[in-house]
Design brief:
Pathway: Cofactor biosynthesis; thiamine diphosphate biosynthesis
Function: Catalyzes an amino-pyrimidine hydrolysis reaction at the C5' of the pyrimidine moiety of thiamine compounds, a reaction that is part of a thiamine salvage pathway.
InterPro entries: Haem_Oase-like_multi-hlx, Thiaminase-2/PQQC, Thiaminase_II, Thiamine_Salvage_TenA
Largest sheet: none
EC number: 3.5.99.2
Radius of gyration: 17 Å
Structural class: mainly alpha
Keywords: Hydrolase, Thiamine biosynthesis
Strand content: under 5%
Length: 232
């Protein structure tokens, strides 16, 4: 089952409506040069180096967001389910980063000394602020796009013909992997559970942060393609 099929099967749910809401954003994400050229193996190495380094920085903050969201869950069952799905995603991504950092000659010292790009800085601060200051349901909605969009993109690229010698094939394999998909499905399910208990006002806030995080996903990839740095 791919991410698009999943959204169809959720028809009538909060997450299905949220996914429909970001359809224009997803169209822009799918057309990003970084993803197109990662898929066919023609992405310039310096662009991928910039992206994977920024992604490593992002993941450190994202992991903390997941821990905050888990701590706000209303019962132990949801805490454990959320932590389990989050652990799957983080473990998968950390393994991916370790391999690519070595492959592209990026040392742990490089990661430690690296500065987040403006887009990465804005995105992680949005997630951290939402996690700290919002309800469980709203915070959960803000971290969902990272799971779901990567799953969707990974599945889409995985289904294209394999390019022999593609230096980025491990990235494609990771986000098209059933283990990553399982984690994404869990977070989608938990978001729908939270939405059913939310007030109308809270559900509107859930939609708002879901859309904003999806916009940041586009910005993050686009900024890597442009090798974005601080202008002053």
């Amino acid at each position: 089952m791919d991410a698009s099929t999943q959204s169809t099967e959720l028809t009538g749910s909060f997450t299905a409506a949220a996914w429909d809401r970001i359809a224009p954003i997803m169209a822009e994400i799918e057309a990003l040069p970084l993803l197109q050229r990662l898929s066919d193996g023609t992405l310039p190495p310096e662009v991928f180096q910039h992206y994977i380094l920024q992604d490593a920085l992002y993941l450190k903050h994202y992991a903390r967001c997941l821990a905050i969201v888990a701590a706000k869950a209303p019962d132990n069952a949801q805490v454990l389910r959320f932590l389990g799905s989050a652990q799957k995603a983080i473990t998968v991504e950390q393994g991916l980063h370790a391999g690519f950092l070595t492959q592209f000659g990026i040392s742990s010292a490089d990661v430690t000394s690296a500065e987040p790009s403006p887009a990465g800085f804005a995105y992680t601060n949005f997630l951290l602020a939402t996690a700290y200051h919002s309800s469980y349901a709203v915070a959960l909605s803000s971290i969902l796009p990272c799971f779901w969009i990567y799953w969707h993109v990974g599945e889409a690229i995985k289904n294209r013909p394999v390019i022999e010698g593609n230096a980025f094939q491990a990235w494609i394999n990771t986000y098209g992997d059933p283990q990553f998909a399982a984690g994404a499905r869990e977070v989608i399910a938990l978001t729908d559970i939270a939405a059913r208990a939310a007030s109308p006002v809270e559900r509107a806030q859930m939609t708002d942060v879901f859309v904003r995080a999806s916009q940041y996903e586009w910005m993050f990839w686009d900024s890597a393609w442009r090798l974005e740095t601080w202008p002053v």
